[in-house]
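Reopening this ticket.

The earlier resolution said the output was attached, but the attachment link was broken on my side. Pasting everything inline this time so it's all in one place.
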Amino acid sequence: MLKVQEIRELIKLVDQSSIEEFVYENEGSKIKMKKNTGTTVVTTVQSAPQATTQAVPVVQAVPKVVAAEAPIQDAVPTTADNAAASQVDTANLHKITSPMVGTFYASPTPEADAYVKSGSVVTKDSIVCIVEAMKLFNEIEAEINGEIVEVLVKSGQLVEYGQPLFLVKPE
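Inline output:
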């Protein structure tokens, strides 16, 4: 049986690939993932003990990883989120998005200051954060000249491909 971390890695790999369905079978266990239904469903079926012939299905729904137009936290809005959203007009702002699935880090080391924060002025070559994926630390550049209006994720948070990380007011 696969460990949870191994299943998570499989989900990431399947999501980053162009395949729509993935099936893995090993020693009586089966994992099946589909991407085209809006959610990725991971089904694990283990063989029952020799005395019976029934299989025990375990189903866990996992959100589909897609290029998102809004931060993940906006999926279930709270009063505080609504208040913050109403204060910032995002229509004229550029979104710096994550180019991959990984872990967001605001600074090069835990002790160091963040690369940028709200109010920081950036150029298109400015490093704004690091996204770590499979033990590789990828420096993310601003892609645009402007001022950071809002940091949308927290350091150490898992981010998805296409998820907005920063809102930037272009110069």
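Reporter confirms the inline version is readable. DSSP finds two helices and twelve strands in the chain. The chain has two domains: 4-63, 72-170.
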